[in-house]
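REQUEST ID: PR-0412
SUBMITTED BY: lab tech R.K.
PRIORITY: routine
TASK: structure prediction, single protein chain
INPUT:
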Amino acid sequence: MEHPKFIISDRGHLRLGMVTLHRDLLLAHEQCLGGGFYEFDYVGNRLILSGKSFDYGPPRWGKIEVLKVPEAYRGMSIVYRDSWGDEINLTDHFAIKYY
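STATUS: complete
OUTPUT:
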């Protein structure tokens, strides 16, 4: 069954998709630095990331310097909600490069 999942690649790419497994989002020769689930808050213009991947664990934000985000999400705030409900505003925390 497919669910809205995301991963962070070892090159800092944020990749989202409706997939069964987080590994379905990886490209050849990439490593995964964790992942989780996503949802859109259209009213607040936010992309909300949360949870963790059962295969790769939670995102290891400390391993990346620049977060590479698809151009389609330009202008949206990107936040990560941890398991305690605290939110990290990734848009403020990282240099964002759109592709």
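NOTES: Strands lie at 3-9, 14-19, 32-41, 46-50, 66-69, 77-81, 87-89, 95-98.
REVIEWED BY: pending
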